[in-house]
Each structure stands twice: as structure tokens, then as C-alpha cells.
Amino acid sequence: MRSRLLVTGANGFIGSALTDKALSQGWEVTAAIRPNSDRSYLQDKRLRFVHLPYESPEQLAQVLRQQGRFDYVAHIAGTTKALRPADYFRINAEYTRHLAEALSEESLRPRCFLFLSSLAALGPATSAERVRPDQKPTPVTTYGASKLAAERHLEALSDQLPWVVVQPTAVFGPRDRDLFQFVRLVNYGLELHIGLRPQRASFIHVSDLVELMLAALERGVRGRKYIAADGRDYTTEDLGEAARLALGRRVLRLRLPVSGVKAIAALNELVGQWHGKMPALNREKLRELSRVSWWCDTSETFQDLGFRPQYDLHGGLRETVIWYRQHGWL
Quick one: which of 67, 69, 250, 301 has the fewest CB in 10 Å? Predict the structure, then answer.
């Protein structure tokens, strides 16, 4: 009998990749999306759809009872960009709590509830060279703090709901629009870096991430948090090189001091307020970009899950650029 999987935020970059991977492996997948969501990446006829009213715990529980018990739940829905700090906590933390509490009901309780958090919930490496799973969380953004708050809600439900948390670093691959902004600039001949020295960075290809997530659902230690990265150490210089090679471009390389970019980020936010949408470069994001070290300790993740990534940054970015070109993004 096929396992039933509920994927929230299934129409997004990571959600749609997880949906594709699960379907290819024989899972029965229900995609939780808003009624007016773009379904461009959700065309498989085997998919089922549901709308979850996260804002109302009573209605949410009612809809879930109508759906029946899922074997596994992957909660990806959330926001990475919000105009107001309160929106991060409402969408990322409170909605997660509402869903987790509803699924704690005995008749609805899954074998495992996976929450897709973020490395931002842990924050950058502090006293050690790497971000470690057991380090004291020091998020430097409201986004990271809201993800940490969601994790705390799950911890409070540990005796009622079996859960795992996955904390990915920067995720890239086909359909991604965040790293695409950097790649597009390189394609135009401009390699732009923020900060006067290279940042220690980590990455994971979306295909590897969703494989890791399925492994965490099935084999992860309940109540444990797993850092998701490819296990390699990079710098922003490596990112630039990977983009140049994938695109076959010569570029003008510029480094901008963080102090100078702050004014641009603040202006971007004003424009975002006017248009009702937070831009990719904002003061929140700048706080992450200005931290020196995001290298990760993935030893526990690889050991517990028996996971080995298939992509490194260079190979993954080559494949991603091909996808961008095939779909007219470049």
C-alpha cells in the first residue's frame, strides 16, 4: 500500500520538487495550496489538492478530518520575505503551530511531521568554525527568529506528535528565483559580491534536499533537527566561479562594502512597501549576507539518514543554467 504524503506549499520551488520526487517514488501525494495558486509545476494527474485554512485552527482541523489520516506530512509553506516582522511570526510560526496541533489529534497523527525550517534559525557559526546542530541558536534576521519560534512550538508538542526538522542552507536548482538573480547578473557580465572579503558559504541542490527530506520522514530520529547542506565548504568566490563556468562568461567583478549596500537595501524596502512586496535585497537579507561563516557540520545528518548528496555547487549550477536557458529565463 502506498504511503500518503501531504505537502504544504507544494506549488513553490522546494514544494514542487518534493512533490515530483515523491510521485516518482510511488508515494500518494496531496498538495496543499491556496485556491488561486499557480499550478504550473503541479500538472501530474496523480496529484490531489486541498486548501488548508491555517489562520483558523477549528476550520483547519475540520478540513484535515475530511482528508483522513496522512502517513507523513511535509510542512514547507511559509514566507521568506515579509513587509512586517509580525507577518513572519504569523505565517512561519503560528500557522505551523496550528497545523501541528491539529495533527496531534490521535485520529490524524502521522508517522512523522517534517517541518522545513532554515539554517537561519541557527544563525551563522559563532565560537566554532561551523554551524553545528547543537549550537545555541543566534538568528540574525526576523525570518530566522520566526523559524526558530516554529521549532519551539514543535518541541512543546514532542509527546503528542512525532516530528523532525530540516534546516537547509542556501538551496538552488531548476525553478529557483533567488540565486537566479545572481546568475542573471553574471550572464550580463557583472559578478557582484557584498562585503570586502569572501564569505564562507554552503549550498544544497534542490534535488538532494528533497531526497534528504524523504529520508528524514522515513528514517529520521523523531525529535531531531537535521542541517541540510552538501557537506562541502565554499566561499562566495566559488559561487562566482561556478556561475562564470556554467554560463561561459567573462565578467567585471565588483565588491561592494556592506555599509554602502545598506542604503540600497533600505531604498529597496521603500519601493517594496509601495508595491506591497518585499524585494530580494533588503536589510534583513543583508544581515545574513554580511555574516562571515555559514559552513555547516552535516555529519549527524549524513550518518542518521544514510544520505549522500549527488550534486556539488559546480555540477548543480551547470544543470540549473541549462534549465534556465531551456525555459527562457536567460
Answer: 250
